[in-house]
Design goal:
By secondary structure, the chain is an all-alpha fold. Helices cover 80% and strands 0% of the residues. It is built from two helices and no strands. α1 packs antiparallel against α2. The two termini are 20 Å apart.
Length: 61
């Protein structure tokens, strides 16, 4: 179960990082709307939470 969850978390983190990168590329040079930054911040928080869960599962090395 743990190995499956680790693989799932890694996959989710990669997907979220790709989505974040796409959102950042789509930002206009001027007139950025607050909701655009909010979406990126939410993705960053979700990535952080999943990375923390992954660290907990992997334990100290």
């Amino acid at each position: 179960m743990t190995e499956e969850r680790v693989a799932q978390l890694k996959q989710e983190i990669n997907r979220l990082q790709e989505e974040k990168a796409d959102r950042e590329k789509a930002l206009p040079a001027h007139s950025i709307r607050p909701h655009q930054l909010l979406v990126i911040e939410e993705l960053e928080e979700e990535i952080r939470l999943k990375e923390d869960e992954l660290k907990d599962l992997l334990g100290p090395k």
